[in-house]
């Protein structure tokens, strides 16, 4: 576990029909726990992105670990810019920035 890691409800998260005519519930624990509800006009796209969040965070962390395993290249090499984006995205996902 990383030092800066914040706890979130573990995945997998599911995209399920919400209440009313539209809207989606994002759930965990086989539908027993509601993470959030989307009720806006583009709820389907938002729900899909939210459901993918735990997997996206894990992929970002794996990519950052891989970049850290590469030989160091100073300056503005592509992997340095990518590393900065990954660090920022992971921090935002964990409640930083």
Account of the 3D structure:
It is built from 2 helices and 3 strands. The chain has 97 residues and is an alpha+beta fold. Strand 2 (24-28) and strand 3 form a beta hairpin. It is elongated, with a radius of gyration of 17 Å. The mean pLDDT is 82.
Name the beta content range: 15-25%
Secondary-structure element order, N to C:
EEEHH
| Count of beta strands | 3
Q: Strand order across the biggest sheet?
A: 1-2-3
Task: Note the topology.
Layout: E1 14-17, E2 24-28, E3 33-38, H1 43-69, H2 78-93
Antiparallel strand pairs: 1-2, 2-3
Helix pairs in contact: 1-2
Brief overview:
The protein is built from two helices and three strands, in the order E-E-E-H-H. It has helices spanning 43-69, 78-93, and strands at 14-17, 24-28, 33-38.
Features:
44% helix, three-stranded antiparallel β-sheet, 3 strands, alpha+beta, 97 residues
